Amino acid sequence: MAWSSLGTKQPGFEWEEFDFPVIGDAAVRITQTYQPKEVTFLNKIHLGEFYANGGHRFLRTIYPSTLPRLYSFTVPPVLEEAGYILRHFAVKHNAYGVVAEANWTINIEVWYPDGAAAQMIDGGTYDGI
Question: What's this model's pTM, rounded to 2 decimal places?
């Protein structure tokens, strides 16, 4: 069992999708790096999720932290019943973005209990993570 990285992004004012999708409910670890003197309490990151049909859902606001943070993101039952279990996380700055010198990056990792991250989707197997 291990953490699977979805990638590392440097947020801007537009949504930046992570390279790999998340399947179903997920335990997520978010690690941030930045230059502390360039990031203030006004700076925040928005975390959202995008679905294959173009749908989008806001998840939460991520505040600056030098410690890895753990989150649990579940798929609402109504979306799960409709088959929306595959999604891409995305990040962007709030209205108070930071200067380029802050070098603020967000790394997202997902914990899959079986370690293989293989899930059944539409009768097939997805091993893309």
Answer: 0.81
